[in-house]
Amino acid sequence: MLSDKAKYSANILKNYSTLLPHKHRCCARVGRQGDNQQQSISIAPKCENLGSVVHELGHVIGFWHEHSRPDRDAFVEIFTKNIETKNLFNFEQKSYNEVNSLGEPYDYDSIMHYRTNAFAKTDGLETMRPKHGSRRIGITSKPSKGDTKQVNMLYKCPCKSHFVCKIII
């Protein structure tokens, strides 16, 4: 699920993105923020792992959370009463004007999908639940096939099923 501000070239991503240590936050803005404007990616100790860094890089290149898609209600149930108030924004459903999934189906395996208990007010509470079966969500350290296909379509890479570029972190 992509923002309309997504388009970066590999050189722009290299020159205008910076990983910054942060005490508590793991975050990045979605998509390019303006001409020649530095894009910061905040990385707290709790997210010093490949999956979290790739998730934040997903935001930088234009990906919203998968569970924020306009069609998400057909795939997951969100329990807002169980979500920490300060993190409700991470579960806001986006409109079709804000995102473009490039025709790709909902992706439970997306690197951009949170776990079922993400930002729960207390341990053991669900913040979302898949509507179709007992699918595990948000438990990945690499982009899914759907993520890869969307990135390749967006950036017009010749191969649709795997990354053409080598990712070095």
Automatic annotation (TrEMBL):
Enzyme's top EC category: hydrolase
Keyword line: Hydrolase, Metal-binding, Metalloprotease, Protease, Zinc
Family annotation (SMART domains): ZnMc
One annotated GO molecular function: metalloendopeptidase activity
Domain Peptidase M12A: 1-158
Annotated InterPro entries: MetalloPept_cat_dom_sf, Peptidase_M12A, Peptidase_Metallo
Catalytic residues (UniProt): E56
This enzyme's EC code(s): 3.4.24.-
Cofactor binding notes: Binds 1 zinc ion per subunit.
Top-rank taxon, per record: Eukaryota
Cofactor: Zn(2+)
One Pfam family, short name: Astacin
Amino-acid positions noted as binding Zn(2+) in the UniProt annotation, renumbered to this chain: H55, H59, H65
GO biological process: proteolysis
PANTHER family cross-referenced by the UniProt entry: DISCOIDIN, CUB, EGF, LAMININ , AND ZINC METALLOPROTEASE DOMAIN CONTAINING, METALLOENDOPEPTIDASE
Protein name stated in the entry: Metalloendopeptidase
Lineage: Eukaryota, Metazoa, Spiralia, Lophotrochozoa, Platyhelminthes
